[in-house]
């Protein structure tokens, strides 16, 4: 089954343009090592191994922050499958839409080094075109959020049509 995720590309989407031009999405979180072959089947197992690594690199952070960071690395690098859709804010009120098109790679000394290749769609989704429910979900805090329950609306927006508006009096 195809999943849909909103993914922020760097703090305040500061790397969105570079990701769009480079055809990738990625995360960082300060774990500076190639994780190829290290992804467990579940985020819990991955976290068990890498929370101590994260905390060693970030002694000012707590275990909750470490768990969220590690789970995000696992989700982007392992859980997302080829064909899954990512919707990424561009920092200007619109969202870039892309399809995961390849496996994890590590790009040492680059922005967002834990990466996945993406085939970006040519059109943007304007935040104002989204339903209130989808706007609320895409506005959630955190690097990612699952928006699969809005599949029908997202597919309509990708196709360039607005979802129908229901007015009740």
Summarize it.
The protein has 169 residues and is α+β, with helices and mostly antiparallel strands.
Can you describe what's shown?
The relative contact order is 0.21. The chain has helices at 16-22, 43-57, 63-79, 132-138, 151-158; strands at residues 4-7, 24-27, 85-89, 94-100, 105-106, 114-120, 125-126, 144-146. The chain is α+β, with helices and mostly antiparallel strands and 169 residues long. α2 packs across α3 (63-79). It is built from 5 helices and 8 strands. Strands 1, 2, 3, 4, 5, 6, 7 and 8 form an 8-stranded mixed beta sheet that branches. β5 (105-106) and β6 (114-120) form a beta hairpin. The mean pLDDT is 93. The radius of gyration is 16 Å and the shape is globular.
Percentage of residues assigned to helices? 25-40%
Q: So what's the overall shape?
A: globular
Q: What fraction of the residues are assigned to beta strands by DSSP?
A: 15-25%
Average pLDDT metric: 93
Biggest sheet record: 8 strands, mixed
Tally of helical segments: 5
Assembly state (oligomeric): single chain
CA-atom Rg in angstroms: 16 Å
**Strand runs, count:** 8
Structural class: alpha+beta
Q: Spell the H/E element sequence.
A: EHEHHEEEEEHEH
Uncertain spans, ≥5 residues at pLDDT below 50? Answer: none
- What's the N-to-C terminus distance? 37 Å
């Amino acid at each position: 089954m195809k999943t849909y995720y909103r993914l922020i590309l760097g703090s305040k989407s500061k790397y969105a343009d570079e990701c769009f031009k480079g055809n990738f999405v990625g995360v960082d979180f300060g774990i500076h090592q190639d994780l190829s072959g290290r992804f467990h089947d579940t985020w819990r197992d991955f976290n068990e191994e890498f929370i101590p690594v994260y905390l060693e690199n970030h002694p000012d952070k707590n275990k909750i922050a470490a768990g969220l960071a590690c789970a995000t690395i696992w989700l982007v690098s392992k859980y997302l499958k080829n064909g899954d859709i990512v919707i990424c804010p561009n920092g200007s009120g619109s969202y870039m839409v892309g399809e995961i098109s390849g496996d994890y790679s590590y790009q040492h000394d680059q922005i967002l080094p834990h990466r996945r290749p993406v085939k970006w769609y040519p059109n943007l989704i304007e935040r104002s075109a989204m339903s209130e429910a989808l706007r609320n979900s895409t506005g959630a805090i955190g690097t990612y959020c699952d928006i699969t329950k809005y599949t029908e609306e997202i597919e309509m927006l990708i196709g360039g049509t607005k979802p129908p508006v229901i007015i009740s009096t």
